[in-house]
Amino acid sequence: MEQSENIAEISAAISKAQGEIRNPAKNTKNAFFKNEYADLTAVLNCIRPVASANGLTFMQGVEAYGDRVAVTSQITHSSGQWIRQVASVPLSASSKNPIQDLGSISTYLKRYQSQSMWAICADEDTDAQDLTIGIENISDQKAAHIDAMIDSTKSSKAKFLEIYNVSDLKQLSEDQYDRAVKQLQTKKQKQVK
User: Fold this and answer.
1) How do residues 91-133 score in pLDDT, each as one tens digit?
2) What is d(CA 116, CA 58) in angstroms, rounded to the nearest whole number?
3) Which of 31, 53, 110, 181 is the most exposed place for a label (fewest CB within 10 A)?
4) Are residues 116 and 145 both part of a single domain?
C-alpha cells in the first residue's frame, strides 16, 4: 500500500466513514461454489454516499501489461492526501477469450480491493478458490483424461486434489491441467523405465 507524505486528515475522514458504512447485502449467487455474495455494484453503493459525505473519493483503474491484469484503487481526501493499493493477477496463457478474462479478473480485484480498503465484509471467503475467478475451468473430457492418468500412474487422487487445492477435477484451471498432464506424463515415463 502506498500513501501521500501526510495522512492525518485522510485517516480521520476514513475512520469516520468506516463507522458509518454498513456491509452490503448479499445480492448475487455464485453458481459454481453455491454461495451468496455482494457484487461490485453493491459494494460500491455502500461506499459512495458515505465517502462523499466525508470529503473522500474512491477511484479504481485497470491496466493490462504483458500477461498480467492490474487494478489500482485509491482513496483521496479533499485535502489532497491519498492512500493507494495495487494488485495484479496473471492472465491464463491458454485463455480462449482474454478480453472476457481481463474483465472478470479486474471486477474480482476491484471488489476485493474495495472491501479491503474500506474494511467491508461482503461475502464468505469461498469464491477465492485458488484465484481462478475469470479463468475457465477444464472440460469434462480433460477432467476424465486427468482421472485416467492418475489411475494409470497409481497416484493418489485425494493427494492430487489436495496439491492443486480443488475438491473436484473439474475445478482445475487450464494452466493447472497443463501442469498436471506434464507431471503425470513424467511420472509415467519413470515407471516404464
Assistant:
1) 887 778 888 888 889 998 999 999 999 998 875 544 444 444 4
2) 13
3) 31
4) no
pLDDT digits (tens, 9 = 90+) for 174-191: 878 888 888 888 888 888
Q: Are 112 and 81 in the same domain?
A: yes
Helix axis angle for 40-53 and 98-118, nearest 10°, is: 40
139: Cα separation from own chain's centroid: 21
Q: Are 102 and 170 contained in the same domain? A: no
Please list, residue by residue across 81-111, b when 16 or more beta carbons sit within 10 angstroms of its beta carbon and e when fewer do.
Answer: bbbebebebebbeebeeeeebbebbbbbbbb
Asked if 82 and 152 sit in the same domain, the reply is no
For residue 148, what are the domain limits? Answer: 140-192
3-class DSSP assignment, residue 62: strand
* Total domain count, the chain: 2
